Amino acid sequence: MPFDSVVVAAVAAELRREASDAQVVKVYQPSPLEVLLHLRAGGRRLLWLVSADPQAFRCHFVSAAPPNPPEPPQFCMVLRKHLEGARLIAVEQNGLERVVTLRFLRSDGERLLHAEMMGKHSNLVLVDDGGLILDCLKHVSARFNRVRELLPTRRYLPPPPTPKPDPLLAAPEEVRAALDGVASLAPSALVKRLGNVGPFFAAEALARAVSPRPDDVADALLALMEDVRQERFTPTVLLNATGEPTDAWAFDCRTLPPDRQDPAPAMSLALEAARGVGERVTPLEELRDEVRARLEATLERERRRMREIQAGLDHALAADDLRVKGELLQANAHALERGAESAALPNFYEADMAPLTIALDPTLSARENAEAYFRRHRKAKASEPILRERLHEAERHIAEGERLLDALPGADRETLERLAGDLAPHAAPGSETTSEESRRPAPGVRRTVSSDGWEIWYGENQQGNDTLTSRLASPTDWWLHVRAAASAHVVIRTAKRPEAVPQRTLVEAARIAAAHSESKHSGVTPVDYTLKKYVRKPRGAGPGKALYTHEKTLHIEPEE
């Protein structure tokens, strides 16, 4: 799909025109790589979608909101914190770069949302008014890009500019000079000599020229750039041989016959017609999205683990301070009485002997306090090599996860299925390996993954409920059902570790039960949860009937 620099210019112009001074009402993240901004401008509601999918990167208005996960992902929560209630004051694009910057104004300053639409490097980055990254959709560490880290608290650096002249920013003489010296130009020559010009764009520029000579091509290209500059776009839906929409471009196309293109009233409508939010998703792409969600959840857990290990290592590296306090207490034990909560002692390790205040346990003597500091010192020093090894292990896991995430766009079904098995949440570190059969729900049973990476299964109908509860669920899995109402049976796979399932995952599973129940339009829905071992099917009961005990209850409010 030619979502190229010209299309980016067209959607940026449309956003400026339709959403000037719009307020952000709500932020959603329908899928791991998509963000949806609900905007209100002049009494109208507008939906702006940004996708950082390597194979479907784009941004444009959509006519309907796609479904959202039960609980918002972490990046969505950060966007909500910083953007909801803010006003859109500018939409910026530097030349023909495929980066659109949305500038928002809040009471405490500006926030910038950079939508980078660059193939496998596509990303969405939120930056404060000081230029520091608040968060990004895809974290990029120095291991993968030493020049341009995209991590929270780092300074945001825009993608490096191309050394070739940008035809929208360059002077006409510079564009002509770049094309000079070639007897007959081909699309590949334009791509090679000009910046931010893709193959489709280059072919269209050549088709508009009266001849392939450099001067004629330069004239056609400059005329096209003037249309971009003046925002004289003519959005067009491109059709295949059977008349079905396949692509969209910002102008009518000279490389296709007239019966293979339809004009559209807006660029967003052309893009939505071509693929939009209701685009057909193949089973392979569903599997790819599932693996991506699991990888990102696994990576987030490893990053949290690495931060915890680093905090412990920092404490271990400061162990010499504990030894110094112990030695000062030991040297001054004769002058200290039991019962003091602190002591300010001359620090003979400093040249000026400046006093060092040391916290004390008032129930211990000075020598016992000194020994306590020495014990803490020995323990911290002993933990240092262990923590270093754990830190290196976490770094290796993160690097491998990021490598797999980068390789997902080109992965085949066999590779994706293997990864889906390896990343099954109920086969997390420390749990037993499960068979392939146990990973695949039966007909009538659907599978999803929680924000914390735990696998959730739920029945689509009575037969699916019966199969899930009677045959698939394990005794130590969490089982959920709406109280006193017909609903889907929902199971959280725990791999014999129900105590490890976080509250957020329980709430997400409860929302699924509530959404698939006869109480789904109620104000507050009570959802019971218990271990599967406390669930039984009454003798002679029909499919999907169950009795349960030892339950607890979650009260689920409808989402806004």
**Residue share in helix:** 25-40%
Distance between the termini: 34 Å
Question: What structural class do helix, strand and pairing data support?
Answer: alpha+beta
Order of adjacent strands in the largest pleated sheet: 15-16-18-17-19-22
Estimated share of beta-strand residues: 15-25%
Query: Largest sheet at a glance?
Result: 6 strands, antiparallel
User: Which blocks of ≥5 consecutive residues have pLDDT under 50?
Assistant: 276-281, 425-440
Shape: globular
User: Gyration radius, to the nearest Å?
Assistant: 30 Å
Can you count the helices?
A: 14
What does the average pLDDT come to?
Answer: 87
Number of strands: 22
Task: Write the topology of this structure.
Layout: H1 5-18, E1 23-31, E2 34-41, E3 44-51, E4 58-62, H2 74-83, E5 87-92, E6 99-106, E7 109-116, E8 123-128, E9 133-136, H3 172-179, H4 187-193, H5 199-208, H6 214-229, E10 236-239, E11 245-249, E12 261-263, H7 267-274, H8 283-317, H9 319-331, E13 342-346, E14 355-359, H10 366-407, H11 413-422, H12 436-439, E15 445-449, E16 455-459, H13 462-472, E17 478-482, E18 490-492, H14 503-515, E19 525-531, E20 535-536, E21 547-548, E22 552-556
Helix pairs in contact: 3-6, 4-5, 8-10, 8-11, 9-10
Architecture overview:
The chain is α+β, with helices and mostly antiparallel strands and 560 residues long. The chain is 36% helix and 21% strand. The chain is built from 14 helices and 22 strands. The chain has helices spanning 5-18, 74-83, 172-179, 187-193, 199-208, 214-229, 267-274, 283-317, 319-331, 366-407, 413-422, 436-439, 462-472, 503-515; strands spanning 23-31, 34-41, 44-51, 58-62, 87-92, 99-106, 109-116, 123-128, 133-136, 236-239, 245-249, 261-263, 342-346, 355-359, 445-449, 455-459, 478-482, 490-492, 525-531, 535-536, 547-548, 552-556. The strands form six sheets. Strands 15-16-18-17-19-22 form a six-stranded antiparallel beta sheet. The chain has a five-stranded antiparallel beta sheet with strand order 5-6-7-8-9, covered by helices on one side. Strands 1-2-3-4 form a four-stranded antiparallel beta sheet. Strand 15 (445-449) and strand 16 form a beta hairpin. Helix 4 packs across helix 5 (199-208), helix 8 packs antiparallel against helix 10 and helix 9 (319-331) runs antiparallel to helix 10. Residues 276-281 and 425-440 have low confidence and may be disordered.
